[in-house]
Each structure stands twice: as structure tokens, then as C-alpha cells.
Amino acid sequence: MSTPAPPTPTGRSAAWERLHPLSPVVRGGRAAAALVVFLVIASVQRQQGDGTHVAIDAVLVGAALVLGLVHWLVTRWSFDGETLRVETGLLRRDARTVPVARIQAVDLIEPFVAKFLDVAELRIRVAGSGKDERLAYLHRQRATTLRAALLATHHGLDASTPEPPELPLAVVSTGRLASSVALSPSSLLLFVILIALAGIFVASERAGAAFGAAIAAYLLSLVTVTWRRFNGQYGFTVASAPDGIRVRRGLLGTVAETVPARRVQAVRRVEPVLWQPFGWCRLDVDLAGIVPRETSGGPREMTRTLLPVADAAVADSVRASLVDDRGVVSTRPPRRALLKSPLSYHNLLAGHDDRVAVAVTGRLRRETWWVLLEKVQSVRCVQGPVQRRLGLASVHLDVAGRRAGASFRDRDATEAHGLVDELVEQCRAARAAAPPASR
Amino acid sequence: MSPAPDLVPGSSASAAAVGEPWSRPSIRLWWLRVTELAIAAVVAAVVAAVAGATARWVVLGVALGALAVIVALAAVTRRRYLAWGYLERAEDLLVRRGVLVRRLTVVPYGRMQLVEVTAGLMERVFGLATVKLHTAAARSDARIPGLEPEEAARLRDHLAALGEAKAAGL
Predict the structure, then answer these.
(1) How far is Cα A302 from Cα B168, in angstroms, rounded to an integer?
(2) Chain A residues with CB inside 8 Å of B14's CB?
(3) Backbone phi, then psi, for A57, in 5-degree steps?
(4) pTM for this structure?
(5) Count of domains for chain A
């Protein structure tokens, strides 16, 4: 590791740095925790404890620790104000460079174990690469300053600019989060299964035990899903900063995400049917990047939850800080569309002006999309046989991502054809008017 | 076998594109589709004959059903071929297709990330190629099959040059 530091265009020194010396312990610790969980599941299912198993597991934990140590020894990173370099790999050296311009988001992740050791993982989402750049683990203080430097240089500021002050937008209370998680299909299913299990157990203990053993794994996965949602979104805080939206969340381990505002492709509000009586909704944001076609999956889905649950008014204020709908008037499709989409007609709404399009779709759960016209990738007009009979057509505005975009469903065919031309024209104008910095 | 220009009235879904000179894939694309269907029909017929001879009635039913689908497809092959069209405008490329479900895709040149020319086995036999346009959105699926290789290469170079000149960020 005696290669000289890479040349820096800014003339700033870019010394190689290592990860935190405790990272193998944290990694090994996590592997151990995973093993313990696996063991518990395995012993519950087989109901047998065996000395050799414990020995094998101890060996595995030891191996994980040694591998972690080797990984720590061969990994180093440097940041010179324009590119982040990471080198790793013992047998096959892997040197990666991340230009700050392509950074999409920088996350600070502190797992449960890492919190006690005052270390944190920095996860950098990069456009044009299917993989996140991970620096696990750095000293907490170092991670914070590096994150500030990456974001500042991403926005063309000096690397030593401190993180700009942030304006709190919304906090999700624990009670609200708990009730929203309880009102999700998976937890309702969990309740139903548990009640059924209790019923069977009361009727016949043997049948209950057999039924319980049969569905134990499934039950455990349901519990895990529910717990993950609660644990991951506990104490959800959204704040707006000049460089984007900050999200802080997590119960045992915490995550601090920063979403650069100009990477936002679309904002989506989801209102699941179970939440509609309470007027709650979830807010998601799509941040897709350029992905090389060789990765078979196509454009990578980059959906972030902006608000796990909130009242419409709060969600609206958060949404407005990213995409201003500028009072767009949405209209319903013609009444004859009821014949084509009887189940979703009551939700269908769409409208646009010269900067933003808003569209509502969905049968039971209502989805509202806000799309900035400058981000639109393509405009499509689709007319199926039933729609042709009724003189209807759908217009889709696609933005980067797997299935992101606003859909003007079942509009009058003549209106739809005019809409295509109008939207193509307005998207071009919006693109031309957009600041070149959105490159 | 030169195609009549307007067998599919109203399939140019964009008002501004009416009366514009839409380009069409090579007529050999139609021959390709017909050949594919003929091969499939022969396979289905052989399966049906063997199944009939050995009294396997379920297999016979499936094979006859497949044969019926192939005949139905053969009836619309020509219209499906004629529905394909593309139009290079100043700022964007328009691709239309489909008889039952009519689709029109508008892709601005600046949004194209990758232009791909592919040729499958059957296409190679017929000396044809497919041009695929990729944007950052997975749903904007603009592809033009059955192009002459020279036209495919011209389109690829033209689109790549325009894409570079008008490139826009995300």
C-alpha cells in the first residue's frame, strides 16, 4: 500500500485512508447475529440441540471475523474534492472511482451494533452503476464530515462547506406508525392466523401444535416483515435542506438519508384502501439513474419512502417542497370510460400545465403521481380494442425507472391525440428551460 | 407485394403526424412472420396427426386449438405488418405499432441512452435487423423490427448522432 496518492485536479491532498479498525468486529458481529437468528429458526423447526452444531457455528463466526479483518487490511479510500476512490480486494484488486457529479444520494447507516462502537456506514448511491458504494465502517464523526463534503462538492460548493441548516417538515409519531403498520395486509393476515391458531389450540392441543409447527416459518416471516417496517420507520423525521430532503429513521439501527432534490423524477402518494377511512397516505419518491443495459434488470428501481404515513395536509406540504403542482386543474375522463374501467373510474383524474403533470389511478388503493415535465423520458399513447370501441385512449408519461410515470387513463381519443402533441411540445420546452445543472 | 399505404386508417395517433411520411419496415418482415406461422402450423399439424393416430385426445385438442390460433394470427399478419411505422421528426422519433392494441411512442432524441441493433435467427435468415431504443425509463419500449441492414445502420448512426447532440440529463 505504498502507491502515491492519486493526482488531484484541485491540488488538494488526497491521502489514502483506511476504514475504522473496528469494522471487522461490527461485520463479524452482524454475521454472528444473523447466525444466531438462523440457529433459533433451525432449532425451532428441528427441535434438537447438538454440540457439533455450536462448534461449527463458532468456526463460521471465527471465519467471518478473519475475512472481515482481511477485508479491512486491503481496503482503503480517498476523496480529493472531485472523486471518491475506493480500493478493495485481496486477490482481485477492485479500484472504483465515483465522480461527485454522479452521486444520487448519500446515506448514513448505523446498525445496532455499530451504535455502541461509535461507527457508521456510508452508502453512496451512484448514477450509472447498479451497485452502491459502501464504506463500512467509518468513525461516526468522519462519516458525517465526508457526507457533508460529498454533498457540498456535488452541488459545486467547496468541500469544507458545512452541512446546510435544515428545516423540519414532518415527524411521524410512534402511535400513528404503529396503527398504520397494524392496518397493513400482512399484519392483518398475522392477526387472523394467530386467532385461528388460538382457536385450533383451544379445540385440540395436538392439532394446534401440528398447525403451529406447519406454519411456524411463514408466521416468523410475517412477524419479520411487520417488525422490519416498524423498526425501519420508527421515529421517521423529514426535513428540507437547500440540497434536498433529509430523512432520519430507525429504532435499533438508524439511517440518515439525503435525497438531492434535482434527482427526483416523480413523487407518488399512495392511499391504501385500509387507510382511506382515516385519510392517511404514504409518500414515495422515485430517483432513477442511468443504468448500463448489460444489467438485465433494466433501469434500477430507486424508490424511497418520503413519509411512511401522514395526513393528507402534511403529505401535501412535504410533496410541495419537492414538486409544486402550481394549482393544476385535474379533470375526469368522460363518463363512458366507466364501461372500460368500472373499478377504477372513481379514482381516475389527470391534468397538467406546462411544467408538471398530475395523474390519479388505482382501483382500491389510490395512487397519485406528480411528474415534472422536464424529467419525462417518453410519451406513449395506447389504445386497446375496448377503448377504441368507446373512443378512448390512454396517454402515459414515462420517467426514469421501472414503472414510474403519470398515466392519463381513458381520456377521450381526440383529446388524447392532442394531448400527446401538447405534452411532447411542453416536455421539450420544460427540458430546454431546466437549469443545465440538472445534467 | 408492395403494401398499400393506408390500409390501417387512423393508426397515426398523433394529430401533427397525420400526412407525414411514415417509414415502414421491409416487406420481408411480413414474409418472416408468414414463415414463422407456417412453421408453427406445420408443427401443430404434425402433432395433431400423430395424436389423432395414437388416440391421445387431449393432445389432439391442444394441437387443434393451437392451429386455430395460428390461422387467426395469419389472418391479421398483413394488418399487423402495415401497422408498424416510424417517423423521424426534428426533435423526436415516433414509433407506432399494433392492430388490436394500438401504441404510439414518442422518444425525444435527447433522452436516448442506447441504440441497439439486433438480429435474431429468423431475422438473419431474411437479412433483417431490429433497432431498439433505450431510455432511462423501462416503459418507453421503442423498437422497430424488420429493417433492411443498411436502413438499420443508417437509423442507428443517425439516432446516435442526434442523441449526442441533444443529450439531456436525468
Answers:
(1) 20
(2) 381, 417, 420-421
(3) -65, -40
(4) 0.80
(5) 3
Q: Which of A132, A163, A194 marks a domain boundary? A: A163
Asked if A268 and A367 count as a contact pair (C-beta separation under 8 A), the reply is: yes
- ipTM attached to this prediction: 0.84
Instruction: Give B139→chain A minimum CA distance, Å.
Output: 6
Given a contact cutoff of 8 angstroms between Cβ atoms, the answer to whether A283 and A307 are in contact is yes
* Tens-digit pLDDT profile for residues A270-324: 999 999 999 999 999 887 654 444 444 444 557 788 899 999 999 999 998 888 8
Same domain, A31 and A129: yes
**B118-142: pLDDT as tens digits:** 998 999 999 999 999 888 887 877 8
Chain B residues 106-125 with a CB less than 8 Å from chain A? 106-108, 110-111, 113-114, 116
Q: A219 and A332 in one domain?
A: no
Q: Which of B110, B134, B139 sits opposite A403 (nearest CB)?
A: B139
Does residue A153 share a domain with residue A84?
yes
Q: Do B134 and A293 touch (CB under 8 A)?
A: yes
| Predicted confidence (pLDDT) at residue B5 exceeds the cutoff of 70 | no
Give residue-wise pLDDT tens across range A375-386. Answer: 899 999 999 999
- Domain with A60 in it: 23-163
User: How many CA atoms lie within 13 Å of B3's alpha carbon, on the beta-carbon side?
Assistant: 22
